[in-house]
Amino acid sequence: MNEALKLKKATYHLWTFTVSKLISSFGAQVYAFAISFYILQATGSAASFAANLICNILPRTIAAPFAGYLVDNYSRKKIVIFSQIATTLAIGGLLIVILTMGLSLAAIYTTSCILSLTSMFSGVAFTSSITGLVDKERIQKAMSLNQMSISFAAIGSPAVGGLLYGAVSMPVFLIIYIAASSIAIFLESTMNFKLFTAPKTDEDEKEPMWQSMKSGISYLKTQALLMTVIWIALLVNFLFGAYQVGYSFILIEKLKISSQQFGLTEGAFAAGMLLLSVYFSVRKEVKYPLLVSKWGIVGMGIIMAAIVLPLMIKLPHSLLFTYYIVLQLGLGATSTITNTPIMVILQKQIDDRYKGRVFSILETMAMALMPLGMVLYGLLYDVFPAQWIMIVSSAMFVGVILILARPSVIRRVHPETAAGKKIRVKKVPTSV
């Protein structure tokens, strides 16, 4: 295939990938909203609700290393398509159970486990295939469009879920999900996952599974940059638990903000992500990605600390709502400034033969630390003043990035900065 045709196909991939991800993300989040609402409405039990959350996290955490092996050794396109087909069949199975026996918690938990696994396999396969789907010059655009899909889903899914849940029965809702998932399968079947991938050599023969996993870990250990990025991602993800637990606790319990206003501030976070995703999708690729991510994380840490200001300085209620809208827009924007360049680094630096294993290892460790962070901070907020927990965690959050992405590390990653040049990072808008 000549270069012009490949670039045309890559452009097609950009949009089919975006639409497919939008359908799958939107469907999954609307489903999660409706099912969570049903569980709480039907049982009134927080334990039943928590059990469904565990069904969403635990299977993907356990299976992620195996997904990495499969993605690196088998057809990524087939894994994506089979995962989407399994999602469709799982929803179809739940529909049959509802029509024949009625909705039960056992059926919901089983479906949640299956969907957790299929989304993880599909996600790792898609992420590992970006450099095969699009040309190197548009990797940042692809990652930005992916983030836009997630942001659109985060903004729209509660509204759509609430509308559908109140307007149609659960079987009709599931039929809509099946139809959308079928469209995603069709789109994915038209994509060439090896458009920009080098042909396999004799050295790329399949290894036994455990040997392959060990090879993936050994590869990681030899890549100083990847280890730095992964440690930053893991520690920042863990410390971000202070915000994930504390934000709701501070606004609802301490400041007594209404549920409607709280929901709008949550939506502002997704809107901030969306705005910066649009910006990254149309601008040139970031020249110094790790440097941009570094200051994005510093910005996140400062905004996290600012969340507790109304606990120390009393603000009028009307101003309080506006204050948190602006903070959430800024936090969503800085999270995109952080994530998009880091994902571009990972896409370009990781050898295609190891991408599945590296991304699955990252997912496993991140998912493992997320519940730990939430449990730890949940206990801390019950014992210590919220403002000091958030301030100390924010300081650690900033400290981690300043140490792990210190100037000597930046110079190793971006050697151009070692010549004594003054590097100016183009300012990226963080709010509207």
TrEMBL record:
Compartments where found: Cell membrane
Keyword flag Cell membrane: yes
Topology with respect to the bilayer: Multi-pass membrane protein
GO cellular component, one term: plasma membrane
GO terms for MF: transmembrane transporter activity
Pfam families for this protein: MFS_1
InterPro entries associated with the record: MFS, MFS_trans_sf
Transmembrane intervals: 12-32, 38-58, 79-101, 107-133, 145-164, 170-187, 224-250, 262-282, 294-313, 325-346, 358-380, 386-405
Assigned keywords, A-Z: Cell membrane, Membrane, Transmembrane, Transmembrane helix, Transport
PANTHER family in the cross-refs: MACROLIDE-EFFLUX PROTEIN, PERMEASE, MAJOR FACILITATOR SUPERFAMILY-RELATED
The protein's name in its UniProt record: MFS transporter
Source taxonomy: Bacteria, Bacillati, Bacillota, Bacilli, Bacillales
